[in-house]
Amino acid sequence: MNSLYPLKFKPIFKEKLWGGQKIKNVLGMDTGNMPNCGEAWVISGYPENISVVENGFLKGNGLDELISIYMGDLVGDEIYDHFGDEFPLLIKYIDAADWLSIQVHPDDELAQKRKLPNGKTEMWYIIEADKDAELISGFSKKITREVFEKYVEDNKLTDILNYEKAESGDVFFIPAGTVHSTGPGILLAEIQQTSDATYRIYDWDRIDAAGLKRELHIKEALDAIHYDAPTPHKIHYSVTKNRTSTLVRCPQFTTNLLYFNQEISKNFEEMDSFVIYMGVGGTSWLKWDDDEIEIKSGDAVLVPNTVEDIILKPKGEAKLLEVYLQ
Length: 326
Prior knowledge:
The chain is mainly β. The chain has helices spanning 22-25, 63-70, 72-75, 77-83, 108-113, 145-153, 218-224; strands at residues 7-8, 12-20, 37-43, 45-46, 49-50, 89-96, 102-104, 122-129, 134-139, 161-165, 171-174, 180-182, 186-193, 199-202, 244-250, 253-260, 264-267, 275-288, 291-296, 300-303, 309-324. Strands 1, 15, 16, 17, 18, 19, 20 and 21 form an eight-stranded antiparallel beta sheet that branches. Strands 2-3-6-13-8-11 form a six-stranded antiparallel beta sheet. Strands 10-9-12 form a three-stranded antiparallel beta sheet, with no helix packed on it. β4 and β5 (49-50) form a beta hairpin.
C-alpha cells in the first residue's frame, strides 16, 4: 500500500439565501454560476457531502473511503476507535452577505437523546469584515427559558441578543447551546463538529424564491439553549510571529494560529491525530519528504496521522489555522 500524504479536497459549494460573492472574489474559488454562494465545505465527511481528494494517487477517492481503508493511520488510533468511519470535523469557509438565521445547535447529550449523530460546537476565525459588521453570540443579559419564550412570542427576540463587532483576525468560540448568527459583510473560516443539526429560531421575516418563509424550530430549540451560558464568546489571544498561538482548546477540537514569515518545522510523532491547515491569509507551502502542496487563503490540507514531519514555508507573510483533536 502506498504511503499516505497531505491531502487537498475538491470544495463543495452551498447556495444560500444569505450568501454572496466573497468565496469567489476574495478567496478565488471557482463557484461557477452560483449567485449567492454562502459556504464552501473544504473538508467534509458529512453524508451525501463527502469530500473527494484532488491531489496525488488517491485523487478521486472520497474521505469516507480513505477512513475505512486507512483507519487510524489517517485520523489517529484513538479517534478511529471513538468515531469509526465518521470524520469528526466539518471544515468550511462562510460568506455572509446578509444575516444568517438566528439559530442554536444541540450539545452531544441532547443530540444523543434525539437520535442525532452528535452535537455541534463550532468556532469562527474572521478573515475579512466590512466596516461596522456585526454578529450575534448569546444573550445580552441573564435570562430564563420563560423569558426567552416570551420574547419569541412577542417577536422581540433581537432585543435580548448580544451583538459583537467583527473585524479581521477576531475569533469567536460558539459552544453548542449558544444562540448565534453571523451578520452581513463577514467572511470567516469555521471549524465545527460533523453535524448539520440546526434549530432556526428567527429568520428576519425573510421569504425565499418561492415566496415562503423558512421553517422555524422553536420547540426543538427550547431544550437546546444553554440559558445560563456566559457571554460574550470572543476569544482574546496573543500572537508571536513564527510561533504557534493557541486560539481554542476544547474536547471537540484544538485550533492554533500560525502567523509566519520564515520556515517552520513541525513534528507530530507524539500526536495521535490528523492535522488540518486552513489558509486564512497569504500563501504558503506545506512540504513533506520530497513533495509540497500550496496553501492559499480558502484552502485546507489534511495531514494524515502517519505523516510525522512537515515544513511550512511562507511566501512573504502567511496565516494558517492549525486544527487537530487532542
